[in-house]
Amino acid sequence: MTSGEERYQEFAPPAALRPFVRVIWTYAAPDPSPTVQRIAPDGCPELVFDLGAPYAEQGEDGAFHLQPPALFAGQMTCPLAMKPTGPIELVSVRFEPDGARDFLGRPLVEATDRRLDMVERLIGFDPPPGDPTGQAEAFVAWLTRQKQHGDWTIDPIVRPEIDEAAAERPAPPRSSGAQRALQRRFADRVGVSPRLLRSIFRFRRVFDHAAQPDGEAQSWLEAGLEAGYFDQPQMARDFRRFLGCTATEWAREQHALARAIASQTYKPSSPHAA
């Protein structure tokens, strides 16, 4: 990577981790823009390790506070605003929506809209600087050891519901009691309700359609209609809800990590094997 050049790269997990981990990604920016980045919910919790300067996250008081160099980011229901404080280099594990419960060892709802300090848990983790492949391999080895010492499972009721939502298929009819039971399972294994997860998936599909693999750009309205929105006002409400701004404002203001995640992670692609 040359001086000042951004780098974003994704790696597919090995088969043993695939039920739990969606992708491992790395990002570096030696000279990042000091602008505030808006990160939208994507339906997946993450484990993030900083090799460079940590990001500063905007709190409820409006002030920016440094994030820990190793953190677990639970499900998000609102936008995350953060800004770099120096040269960036990080490696991150994006779990499946329901894939982190046994790694975390506590109900995922306890991590919703929170970034949990993982510094102590990642003591001794030392991915090689400047080597995306080596960083991904280091996380694979570390996670494999974590899985071997734990009892990681997938809930056979929650996972099919997530798959149906991702495939844009309607939820099957359920009694009120069955629906409440499913919501309790989702609170434990996912951290958000089935209905909210579907809303987040629909919002993320806007970015899929806005950046087609053939390079043909679409208007936000066209992308929103293809993602499943009825009209522009409905999509605009979700932009306010999940990003805190309009689609036009986001496209004009966002650079660096926020744009890399939106344009790369959510369009159809095949990550490299780690």
TrEMBL record:
GO terms, molecular function: DNA-binding transcription factor activity; sequence-specific DNA binding
Stated name of the protein: HTH araC/xylS-type domain-containing protein
InterPro entries referenced in this protein's UniProt entry, alphabetically: DUF6597, HTH_AraC
Residues covered by the HTH araC/xylS-type domain: 178-253
